[in-house]
């Protein structure tokens, strides 16, 4: 039990809620933690709720009843998300990102915890109303984004392997078609990694035609799992609609062109900002 001044209690309660998103916390937890009356805790939560909403940090939902309490739902206003997307586009347009073959270097951005955390908040906002059990991605570059999203949704992360690991036991493997050359690859998922009939949010760093993500969708079918949503950091806008294997997804940026000669890179905010 901690005896704190109200100002200190408000700070610690705020931190407690921020570190436990999408978790139902009974009022008795705070009352016992700080040795305060529930009425005082309720007053504190009203103040925290106002700050969360005014600052665009998310919602603090109150659940009535004996088993009730409060639940913090991280949400980022679309205006703030757009500022993030515009900054992401600006960084992607740096001329030295162009690699031989017209590829775009993104690994440094995927390695920035603060940037991935912000992207994770946007995906958590986009899919906040969905019933989701786990976040899934395929190794390796999408891993930081998946963990950032999982942290904001308070959900576990499942990794699909390109090569089966003996240490993960028996696995389900499938072949899928990916890349501009339509080459065939293999992906696998440990049978212990995902419960059957789970609801899964797929997250990835980049999508061209959608072959890799479609491969994950097909892999989930082997587990009788349901795709609750798909989020990609950057999508290629140069793919014709009839070539796209996936049409229901959320993107934060669209790469529409890379000119290796002029070193020009055309990137704009993704389809998330066109959705109501």
TrEMBL record:
Residue ranges constituting the Bacterial purine repressor N-terminal domain according to the UniProt record: 5-74
GO biological process assignments: negative regulation of DNA-templated transcription; negative regulation of purine nucleobase metabolic process
Coiled coil segments of this chain: none
Residue ranges constituting the Phosphoribosyltransferase domain according to the UniProt record: 112-243
InterPro entries registered for this protein in UniProt: PRTase-like (IPR029057), PRTase_dom (IPR000836), Pur/Pyrimidine_PRTase (IPR050118), PuR_N (IPR015265), PurR_Bsub (IPR010078), WH-like_DNA-bd_sf (IPR036388), WH_DNA-bd_sf (IPR036390)
Gene Ontology molecular functions: DNA binding
Record key words, sorted: DNA-binding, Transcription, Transcription regulation
Gene3D superfamilies referenced in this protein's UniProt entry, alphabetically: 3.40.50.2020, Winged helix-like DNA-binding domain superfamily/Winged helix DNA-binding domain (1.10.10.10)
NCBIfam families attached to this UniProt entry: purR_Bsub
Subunit architecture: Homodimer.
PANTHER family from the UniProt entry: HYPOXANTHINE/GUANINE PHOSPHORIBOSYLTRANSFERASE, PUR OPERON REPRESSOR
Family indicated by similarity: Belongs to the purine/pyrimidine phosphoribosyltransferase family. PurR subfamily.
The protein's name: Pur operon repressor
Organism of derivation: Paenibacillus dendrobii
Gene coding for it: purR
